[in-house]
């Protein structure tokens, strides 16, 4: 994947001027909208959560109770998934990728793929996460989709070869951006989204010096965006 400027946006009030790639919700975005974005020359990356259960999704009934862990901090209606149960989760995730492909998405952005570092209530290990994330990347590539490694800063070295680019939310805010040079060294884009203005402003020059693409967004992913050029 060449280096592109990425916009991370909700489906309503899409802002695309000045961007080459847009990252939008896979389920909430219609095939017609995706086609219109691609007609403008944009690459379309489609977001879904691969590591958590969201009760409002159309396929929520496909998740058996035994794969559900603790609620995510700050998101009481969302629960961590037991990624050890690939036998149960892989068919759900590949079905999502099939829908993304059918809609015309160029790639996917599987979120919450760092469960082993969180309070899931599931006793997940580093190796459990590697196995699950590698499966996701392989299934995406089997469908001709690009795939992002979302956050998961502890496993960048082990997973860089499996993923096409990286996306991180707030790594400067949490002082976790240092490991992303491994992606740049392999000429794989690194897209950083910060949500605090002062963090964005202070670190813009550092992001540019490392070859990272960084934007400032509001938490609700509305039309506001500021790029670090």
Automatic annotation (TrEMBL):
<dbReference type="InterPro" id="IPR017853">
    <property type="entry name" value="GH"/>
</dbReference>
<feature type="domain" description="Glycoside-hydrolase family GH114 TIM-barrel">
    <location>
        <begin position="7"/>
        <end position="222"/>
    </location>
</feature>
<dbReference type="InterPro" id="IPR013785">
    <property type="entry name" value="Aldolase_TIM"/>
</dbReference>
<dbReference type="InterPro" id="IPR004352">
    <property type="entry name" value="GH114_TIM-barrel"/>
</dbReference>
<dbReference type="Pfam" id="PF03537">
    <property type="entry name" value="Glyco_hydro_114"/>
</dbReference>
<protein>
    <recommendedName>
        <fullName>Glycoside-hydrolase family GH114 TIM-barrel domain-containing protein</fullName>
    </recommendedName>
</protein>
């Amino acid at each position: 994947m060449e280096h592109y400027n990425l916009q991370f946006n909700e489906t309503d009030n899409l802002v695309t001027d000045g961007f080459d790639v847009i990252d939008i919700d896979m389920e909430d975005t219609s095939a017609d909208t995706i086609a219109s974005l691609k007609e403008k020359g944009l690459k379309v990356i489609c977001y879904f959560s691969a590591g958590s259960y969201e009760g409002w999704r159309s396929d929520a009934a496909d998740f058996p109770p035994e794969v559900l862990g603790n609620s995510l901090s700050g998101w009481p209606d969302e629960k961590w998934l037991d990624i050890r149960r690939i036998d149960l989760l892989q068919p759900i995730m590949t079905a999502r990728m099939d829908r993304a492909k059918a809609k015309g998405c160029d790639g996917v952005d599987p979120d919450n793929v760092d469960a082993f570092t969180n309070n899931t209530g599931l006793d997940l290990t580093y190796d459990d996460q590697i196995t699950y994330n590698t499966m996701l990347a392989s299934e995406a590539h089997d469908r001709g989709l690009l795939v992002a490694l979302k956050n998961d800063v502890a496993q960048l070295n082990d997973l860089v070869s499996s993923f096409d680019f990286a996306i991180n939310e707030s790594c400067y805010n949490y002082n976790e951006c240092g490991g992303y040079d491994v992606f740049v060294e392999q000429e794989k884009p690194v897209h950083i989204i910060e949500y605090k203005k002062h963090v964005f402003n202070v670190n813009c020059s550092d992001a540019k010096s490392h070859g990272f693409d960084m934007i400032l967004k509001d938490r609700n992913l509305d039309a506001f965006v500021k790029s670090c050029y």
